[in-house]
Amino acid sequence: MGKRKSNAEEESPEKKRKKNTQKYLKSYTELWPCLLPSRKGVFFVHCSVCVSDFSCMHAGKNDCKRHIESKQHKDYELLKSNQKAITTYIAPVCSTSQQLQVTNAEILMCEFICQSNLPLSTADTMTKLIKKMCPDSKIAAEIKCGRNKTTAFLHDLARLTQKNLADRMRSGPFTISTDGSNDDTSKQFPLVVRTIDPESKAVNSELLSTPICNESATGENIFMLMDAEFQSRDIPWSNCIAFGSDNASVMTGNKKGVIAFIERKQPSIYLSGCPLHLVHIAAKKAAGCLPPVDDVLVDIYYYFNKSDKRKSEFKDVQELCDLDQLKMIKHVCTRWLSIGRCVERLLDNWDALKVYFKSQKDLQDSKKKPLPTKSSIKDSSNSKKSMDNRNVSVDGGKLKHDNKKETASSKVMFEKVYMEPSYAEKKVESILTFVRSPTNKLYVLFLSYSIKVYEEILTCLQAEDPKIHILRRSLLKLLRSLLVRFVKPSAIANQPLDKVEYHLRYNIKPDSELVIGESATEFIKRKSENHLKDIRIQEFYKNVVCYFTEACDYIKKKTAIK
């Protein structure tokens, strides 16, 4: 039997011998320049001649020396010394001034296609066109820039532009704004940045990128898109001084809006909602106090839209009324104040529309025919049988019918049951009802006048130049223009505009002093001629005060007038 080990020997573990491992050192590269650090780890060395990695863990410098002196390394080194660079077989590009001018012309053509928003396939025909237009030009003869080359040029130019923009965003302040597209599946969010051009000292708006959100367009997901673009370009949020967007809750919400997530990165950021959008909403909110006009405008447009016959008939009526033969304008509800032009066109053709739709209604009434009911059909069949029995005579033992009497007796008395009116018939009736009403015309006259109050600020703020320095002044001017139309001067004098008590009844002007426009005032003066009732006029003045009050409330609450 083998000898048992003592307890002391069992308790003390055997000491393992420590291995000596060598790591890559910079001195290897100094001795042999072809040896570089390896991606495999610190215990490996990469040989650029052999394009391979070997271990230096065992002997370190001797491992490197053994590899350098190996037959394989020497063969690769000899092969590489006899190789010529591929650039020696390629002719130099843009080596002459003419070639530089040709390239410059091609780039200018690509920029023109991009700025004009033309399809890239335009480059195929434009190149041929330039050569025909300038047959004596050597530069035009050398232009060879089709759609593929144009695409490559534009991609390179876009990368250069984005790199330049990112450099400015990293080094100085900037503002950013975005809005989502109307796509159902994936929404695009173009990131538009405004920075100061260091050369021209001008404030320019440039497109940074257009990321796509394939998930639900929540405030967090939109912010993650923006943050990913910033991180990929090493742009700090601390340089972002303002965020611009529309006034939807997904953008401006205090808890889950995009601005709430941006404030966690940049607490001092300024939220710049779209003031034009707010002015449009204020006008739309105010118009809710008046009878709806936009629905009638849409109905009139689509009634004439795809019918040449109706358009021709309406032109005849316009000529009869001595009016210009202009078509009705389509109202698009994206921006409510675009209704102004539509309302003016409606007023210009008011009498012509009344005549036309009256004739259409009369034509429809003349074509209506009653339908038989079950009871009328049953009565008619019984009456026919009884009449047949009465009109039978015997002639030579044969039954004979009296055809004349049968024809007279077969006339059936129908009950007056009519078919349900079609969609077009319903529209004709609703439009005719609207244009027949003198009260509706009074409201349209006032609406046409009141919309012009907003035109000055809309024109001013849509300019290309920065208008942030006059934004508050313009909003206060709009508020004053609304207040002076229904509030007494004594309530406005020596009082800040946002402190005017226009809700108090004693501060409101009398009905006769309300500013409603010259056309509406003249229409009321001729109330007997226009068949206007006094009760309707009183209701109109009440709605006018409500209109101005709603507009002022929204402007004070939502815009930056404080």
Structural class designation:
alpha+beta
Shape, principal axes of CA atoms: elongated
Count of runs of 4 or more consecutive helical residues: 25
Distance between the termini: 103 Å
Give a verbal description of the structure.
The protein is α+β, with helices and mostly antiparallel strands and 562 residues long. It folds into four domains: 36-86, no CATH class; 97-156; 172-273, Nucleotidyltransferase, domain 5 (2-Layer Sandwich), CATH 3.30.420; 294-366 and 422-558, no CATH class. 52% of the residues lie in helices and 9% in strands. It has 25 helices and twelve strands. The chain has helices at residues 7-11, 26-31, 61-68, 71-81, 97-115, 122-133, 138-142, 147-171, 219-232, 249-252, 258-265, 275-287, 294-305, 308-320, 339-348, 350-367, 374-390, 403-409, 423-436, 438-451, 455-461, 471-483, 489-492, 518-525, 534-558, and strands spanning 35-37, 44-47, 52-55, 174-177, 187-188, 191-196, 203-209, 212-213, 240-245, 270-273, 392-395, 398-401. A hairpin with a 2-residue loop joins strand 11 and strand 12 (398-401). Helix 9 packs across helix 11, helix 12 packs antiparallel against helix 25 (534-558) and helix 21 runs antiparallel to helix 22 (471-483).
Secondary-structure map:
Elements: H1 7-11, H2 26-31, E1 35-37, E2 44-47, E3 52-55, H3 61-68, H4 71-81, H5 97-115, H6 122-133, H7 138-142, H8 147-171, E4 174-177, E5 187-188, E6 191-196, E7 203-209, E8 212-213, H9 219-232, E9 240-245, H10 249-252, H11 258-265, E10 270-273, H12 275-287, H13 294-305, H14 308-320, H15 339-348, H16 350-367, H17 374-390, E11 392-395, E12 398-401, H18 403-409, H19 423-436, H20 438-451, H21 455-461, H22 471-483, H23 489-492, H24 518-525, H25 534-558
Parallel strand pairs: 4-9, 9-10
Antiparallel strand pairs: 1-2, 2-3, 4-6, 5-8, 6-7, 11-12
